[in-house]
Amino acid sequence: MLLAFVVVYILMSLAVSLWAARRVHSARDFYTAGRSLPLSMVTAMMFAGWFGAETVLGIPATFMEDGVIGLISDPLGAAACLIIFGVFFARRLYRLNMMTIGDFYRRRYDRGIEVLTGFAIALSYLGWVAAQITALGMMIHLLSGNLVSVEQGIMLGTGIVLIYTIVGGLWSVAITTSIQIVITVISLSCIAWLLASQVGGIEPVIDHAIANNAFSLKEEVTPLLALAMLTSFITLAFGSVPQQDVFQRANAARNENIAVWSAILGGSLYLLFTAVPLFMAYTANLINPEFVSHIMQTDGESLLPRVIEQQLPLFAQVIFYGALVGVIMGTSASTLLAPSFMITENLLKGLFTRPLSDKQLLLLTRAVLTGFAVLVCWYALWSREQDTGIHAMVEAAYKVTLVVAFVPLVAGLFWAKANKVGAWWSILLGLSVWIGCELAFPDALVGAQWWGLLASTLGMVVGSRFAWKETQTLQQYRL
Fold this sequence. Notes:
This protein is mainly α. The chain has helices spanning 2-20, 27-32, 39-50, 53-66, 72-95, 102-108, 111-143, 150-166, 169-197, 202-211, 223-237, 244-251, 256-273, 275-287, 289-299, 303-311, 314-348, 358-385, 390-397, 399-404, 406-414, 420-440, 448-478. It folds into 2 domains: 2-398, Up-down Bundle (Sodium/glucose cotransporter); 415-479.
């Protein structure tokens, strides 16, 4: 019955996607939903883009294992990213009327910078989308009563998400996500209340957490640890800013004010409702600490599904799995679209000698979608073999964009003297230092991306200044 309900839920989502596809008449419709979405839908997409497998499965497991320090990158850094994007970037980027974030690097710098940053941004999505697909594979495995392996579930989940995405593009994501996220928030809140009722309500859980310093750091904060925490925070807070999925949601807004406020509201809602899965995990530990300890030792990311199977009746399990599968599908679809758009628009489109028609561009985008989905499936299976957790896959996804794309974006928007020489220096120096530190100090407390970010900043300043002075000298000589 549980499996049948989830199958029906998936089929209904696919039906909505097919219905939404009627609105797709051009590549711009497929990419940006015609830039016509209201505040409620764009906010829902912003919120749901982050509220995925990592939030419901990865964050609770990380919190139970590492405590509050495990929350620095996600949800704190992730929520900060959307708010920062809304306050400082959304309005400026919306006014440029671009198809992808990669278009900015071509307009501000040159084609080479566009290709390099576009490749780096697209590549970064492997980890994020693979995390969602892995979670979907886990859900299929659990719902089938272990008849379908996680690996088989990953392959099946990839196919489902691909069909769900390839039909209607951003229109499908916008409409289905708006429905799914409301169902998810209500469902998870109800389940949290059911769990809390087994220990006397919400107040005893909060009192227990305060009495036991559940949200206090477990160790003394040394300067080195503080730097490591800052690095973890900015990896998502800054590294996610130049991402196509954040940009494409804001870019689908009806006007620039909606683009700004949808990001701010989406980040605020994400920070608020991430507390629900954390509350559920902490409550489960009060209900049955031995069971929770056993799950954490074997497979911590299956904690909430296992607890709900054991502690709650069938109707609650139906609600939980339906909500979880829905939010994973919505997040997967949105983040599968983003790199496919960039590969098509910023890497492949420029290789054709003649301009592509709308029909040809849509066909190429859907072909790239299929190819990227296959690559994501392979990466998810490989990560499964390497025992890489969902939280680790998500955090790793934004290191490359932090050291390659963040500084050129900020400098290009806010510094008039930024130029293509500085951008090249920034990217090459940041990438070289980051990779070098990763190889030389793989287990260092402070992540290599911190040093890569510093090098990227230095490269932009020195390179732009050098080119600016050289240009000024040449102009004076000519005069």
